[in-house]
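Whiteboard transcription, Tuesday session. T.W. wrote the C-alpha cells on the left side:
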C-alpha cells in the first residue's frame, strides 16, 4: 500500500524527476487467501483496489496470477474479464504470472495475453524456460518477462546459507544443483570484480529471448544494486558465454 500511494501521487511530487513509472499488478490467486477467487466479481474487486491505491490511474500491466489454480470452468470468464478491462482502457496489456509452461501454453492459446512471467525458469542457474516457456510465448506473440534473476536468493541473500547447507548435506536434493551452479557463477563474478547479484541481472539483460527483467528488491541497498546492474547493461560477450555454460 505504501508503494502504491507513493507511485499514485508521483505526478504531484516535486521530488520526482524521472519518467513515469510502469504500474504493474496481478489478479487471481492471492497468498493470504484460503481459496483463490477467479470469479469476475473477485477479479473486479482486486483491480479496483489496485487502481484506488494508484490514485485511479490505469494499470500498465495486469497479470493473471497462478492460472493453474483457476478451475477450468472459470477460465473463459477470466479471459472475458481481462479482455474487457483492456478494451475499456483500465489496463494497457494483460499477461500470465506463474503456472508453469504447460498451463501458460493453454491460456495463451485461448486468450489475448501480451506477456508471460517466468518464475525461476530463466536465470543464471537454470535455462529450462528457454526450451518451453519462451517458445510458447513467442508462438503466441507474447513477450517474456523473467522474474527471480537471483533464483530465490541462491545468488543473493541465501548464498551463504545454501552453501553451508550444501556442505552439511542438509540441502534438499532438488536444490543442490542450484547451489553448485551458484558456486561457479559466484566464482566468475569474483574473478570479474562484480557482485554475483549484478552478474545475475546483467546475464538476463544479455539474453535476447528476455524482454524485461523483474527484480524484487526488499531494501534500499538491493534497489541500488539492481539499478547499478541495469546501468552497467549486458555482460561482455566472453563473460556472458561463461555464465551461459555454467547455467
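and on the right, the sequence the group agreed on:
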Amino acid at each position: 500500500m505504501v508503494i502504491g500511494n507513493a507511485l499514485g501521487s508521483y505526478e504531484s511530487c516535486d521530488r520526482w524527476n524521472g519518467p513515469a513509472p510502469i504500474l504493474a499488478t496481478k489478479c487471481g490467486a492471492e497468498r493470504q487467501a484460503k481459496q483463490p477467487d477467479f470469479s469476475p466479481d473477485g477479479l473486479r474487486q482486486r483491480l479496483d483496489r489496485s487502481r484506488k491505491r494508484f490514485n485511479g490511474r490505469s494499470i500498465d500491466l495486469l497479470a493473471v496470477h497462478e492460472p493453474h489454480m483457476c478451475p477450468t470452468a472459470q477460465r473463459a470468464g477470466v479471459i472475458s474479464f481481462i479482455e474487457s478491462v483492456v478494451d475499456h482502457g483500465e489496463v494497457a496489456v494483460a499477461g500470465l504470472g506463474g503456472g508453469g509452461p504447460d498451463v501458460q501454453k493453454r491460456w495463451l492459446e485461448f486468450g489475448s495475453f501480451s506477456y508471460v512471467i517466468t518464475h525461476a525458469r530463466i536465470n543464471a542457474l537454470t535455462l529450462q524456460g528457454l526450451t518451453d516457456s519462451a517458445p510458447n510465448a513467442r508462438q503466441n506473440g507474447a513477450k517474456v518477462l523473467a522474474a527471480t534473476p537471483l533464483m530465490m536468493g541462491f545468488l543473493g541473500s541465501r548464498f551463504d546459507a545454501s552453501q553451508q547447507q550444501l556442505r552439511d548435506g542438509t540441502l534438499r536434493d532438488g536444490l543442490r544443483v542450484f547451489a553448485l551452479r551458484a558456486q561457479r557463477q559466484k566464482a566468475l563474478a569474483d574473478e570479474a570484480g562484480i557482485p554475483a547479484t549484478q552478474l545475475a541481472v546483467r546475464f538476463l539483460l544479455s539474453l535476447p529471448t528476455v524482454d524485461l527483467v523483474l527484480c524484487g528488491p526488499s531494501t534500499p541497498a538491493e534497489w541500488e544494486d539492481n539499478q547499478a546492474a541495469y546501468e552497467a547493461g549486458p555482460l561482455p560477450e566472453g563473460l556472458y558465454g561463461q555464465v551461459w555454460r555454467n547455467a
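Someone added at the bottom: The mean pLDDT is 91.
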